[in-house]
Design brief:
By secondary structure, the protein is of the alpha/beta class. The longest helix is centred in the C-terminal third of the chain and has 18 residues.
Length: 254
Amino acid sequence: MRKPFIAGNWKMNTRTEEAESLVRAMLPELNNIEGVEKVLCPPFISLAAVQGLIKGTSIKLGAQNVYFEDKGAYTGEISPLMLKDLCDFVILGHSERRQYFAETDEQINKKIKKTLESGLKPILCVGESPEEQEADKTEQKISKQVNSGLAGISPNSQMVIAYEPIWAIGTGKAATGKQANATISLIRDILTKLWNKETAKTVRILYGGSVTSSNIGEFIGEADIDGALVGGASLKADEFVSIVRQTLHLKSTQ
C-alpha cells in the first residue's frame, strides 16, 4: 500500500519569521498525525529555520526548485549539494517555473537526474493548459512531460509525481475527483510502459490545483490519487492540518 503524501508548496510567500510562526502553529497537531508523509516546502531563505523547528518530528522538508549543477558560476541558483543536508524532497517542473522561467522538459530532466544523484527525492509536476484541455490534448501533453522528464532515468519508486492542471492552479477551479483520477491513472500507465508495472504501482502520484480542506475528500477518495500538492491552503495552519487529517482518515478506510 502506498503511503499517503501531502506536501505544502508555500511558493514565494512568508518571510523567515512568518515561516517560523506558521510552522509553530501547525506543528503540535501535524506531528501527531501518523500514517501520512507530510512535507513542508518553504522558500529557500527559510529552509534552515524550518528544519530547526521540525527536527526530531515526523514532518519532512522540501525545496521548491534546484539547479542541475553541483557548483559554479550560476549567480542566484541553488545546487543539490546545498540542499542535501537540509531537505528530503525537491519540487521540479512546476507550471510556474515552466511558464515564468521558460523551463523546458529537457532542463527538468537534468534537474531530476542531479536531484536523484544527490540523494534527494524529486516531486515532478506535470499538467495541461486550459487551451490543451479544451482541445482534448491532455493525454498528449501529460505523456510528453512524463516521458521527457524521466528520459534516461532508471525505475525509481522514490519518485513522486504531482498532476497539476494549469487551469486549476490558484484559480479556485479544481478538477473533479474523477477527472484527476483518470489523468493520474493515465500517468501510471505511462510509467508502466516507461519503467515497469511494479514500479508504476509503487510511485505516489498526487493531485494539485486549488486543493482545500473542503474538497480534499473528493480527491483522496479516488483509488489512484495518493495525496496532494497543496498551494494557498498550506499557508493556513488549520487548513493544512485538516487536509492531512482527512487524508489519513479516508485512506485508512479504503
